[in-house]
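pls design
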C-alpha cells in the first residue's frame, strides 16, 4: 500500500467518524430546565419578593426529610391559604412531582417513597396572611 491510498483511507475514516458523531449528537435529547422557562423568567420578580417574605419570617417552617416521607411543620405563623410543593429532578423531568399543601398550619406529610433516589430541588410556594412565600432547598432522597 502506498502513501496515496493511506491518505485516502485516513480521510474516509475521518469522514465516517464525523458522520457517527453527528448522528449521536442529533439523537441526544436537549431540553430546557423547565418546560415553561420563559414564563417563569418573566415572573421572577414576584419570586424574589416571595423569597424576601420567607426570609423575614420569624418562625420558618421546619422540614424533615427521610427516605419515604417529607414532613413540613409551619409552626404558628398562620394558616396556609394555598400552596404547592414541587419535587424538581434536574437530571430527568419525568420524575418531577407536584404536591398540594393543605389549608392548615399543622404538620404536613408527603409520601415520596415512589420517587427514585437522587437529588431534587424542593420548591415550596404558599400564601399566608395575604402574602406569598417561596422556599427552595436541595435535598437528596
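designed seq:
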Amino acid at each position: 500500500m502506498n502513501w496515496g491510498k493511506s491518505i485516502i483511507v485516513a480521510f474516509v475514516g475521518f469522514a465516517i467518524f464525523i458522520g457517527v458523531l453527528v448522528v449521536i449528537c442529533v439523537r441526544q435529547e436537549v431540553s430546557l430546565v423547565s418546560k415553561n422557562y420563559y414564563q417563569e423568567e418573566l415572573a421572577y420578580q414576584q419570586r424574589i419578593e416571595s423569597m424576601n417574605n420567607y426570609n423575614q419570617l420569624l418562625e420558618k417552617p421546619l422540614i424533615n426529610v427521610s427516605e419515604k416521607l417529607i414532613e413540613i411543620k409551619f409552626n404558628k405563623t398562620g394558616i396556609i391559604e394555598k400552596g404547592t410543593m414541587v419535587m424538581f429532578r434536574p437530571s430527568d423531568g419525568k420524575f418531577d412531582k407536584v404536591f398540594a399543601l393543605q389549608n392548615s398550619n399543622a404538620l404536613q406529610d408527603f409520601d415520596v417513597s415512589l420517587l427514585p433516589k437522587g437529588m431534587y430541588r424542593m420548591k415550596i410556594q404558599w400564601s399566608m396572611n395575604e402574602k406569598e412565600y417561596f422556599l427552595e432547598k436541595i435535598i437528596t432522597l
